[in-house]
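Practice problem 4.
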C-alpha cells in the first residue's frame, strides 16, 4: 500500500471465514459525517440462505492497531430471493446480435453501499441482481438503524418487463431521501434507451 506522498502506507488486515464473499464497504454520501466513533459498515449477501444481508462493523485505529476490531456479521433478514442466472449468479445475460452471454454477478452486492447520515437517522443503500421469472432484475434495500439493530426500512425489485435483463445496479440518495437506482439493460433484441428508476 502506498500513501499519497509515495511512501509506504499502513494497512490493517482481518481474515473472515471462507463462507463469506463479495464483501462491500460502505461509502459516505453527503456533508454530514457519521456520528463520532462510528465504524465503517461492510455488507455481503447471505448467499447460503438467500434471505438476508450480512453486516459487519469495522473499527480501525491507526495509532494503536491492536485496538482495531471487526465484529459481526449481524444478519438482516430480507425477503427471499433467487440469485440471477439459474440461482448461481453466473452467466445468462443475453445481448443482441450474438450468442455470447454476460455475467450477472448476481452472487454479490453491487457497488456502491451508499451510506448517508441524515442526523435523525442513518441510512445504507444496497443492490444486487435477482432472478425474476427467468430474467435478471435489480433488488434494492434501504437499511436503517445500522449502528444498533439494523432493519430493512424499505426494499423492492425492479424488473418492469420480461424481455430485458436489468442488472449491475448502483444506488444513491440525496439529502431529501430521494433514492435513485441506475442499472445496465440488455436482451436478445436491442432495448430502447433505459430509464433510470427513481424510487
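Answer key:
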Amino acid at each position: 500500500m502506498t500513501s499519497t506522498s509515495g511512501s509506504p502506507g499502513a494497512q490493517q488486515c482481518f481474515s473472515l471465514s471462507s463462507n463469506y464473499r463479495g464483501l462491500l464497504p460502505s461509502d459516505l454520501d453527503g456533508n454530514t459525517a457519521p456520528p463520532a466513533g462510528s465504524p465503517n459498515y461492510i455488507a455481503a449477501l447471505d448467499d447460503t440462505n438467500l434471505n438476508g444481508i450480512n453486516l459487519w462493523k469495522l473499527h480501525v485505529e491507526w495509532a494503536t492497531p491492536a485496538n482495531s476490531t471487526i465484529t459481526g456479521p449481524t444478519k438482516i433478514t430480507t425477503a427471499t430471493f433467487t440469485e440471477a442466472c439459474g440461482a448461481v449468479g453466473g452467466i445468462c445475460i443475453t445481448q443482441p446480435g450474438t450468442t455470447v452471454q454476460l455475467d450477472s454477478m448476481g452472487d454479490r452486492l453491487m457497488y456502491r453501499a451508499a451510506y448517508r447520515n441524515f442526523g435523525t437517522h442513518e441510512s445504507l443503500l444496497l443492490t444486487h441482481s435477482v432472478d425474476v421469472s427467468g430474467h435478471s432484475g435489480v433488488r434494492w434495500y434501504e437499511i436503517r438503524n445500522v449502528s444498533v439493530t439494523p432493519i430493512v426500512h424499505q426494499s423492492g425489485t425492479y424488473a418492469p418487463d420480461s424481455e430485458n435483463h436489468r442488472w449491475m445496479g448502483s444506488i444513491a440518495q440525496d439529502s431529501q431521501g430521494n433514492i435513485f437506482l441506475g442499472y445496465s439493460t440488455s436482451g436478445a433484441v436491442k432495448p430502447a434507451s433505459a430509464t433510470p428508476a427513481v424510487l
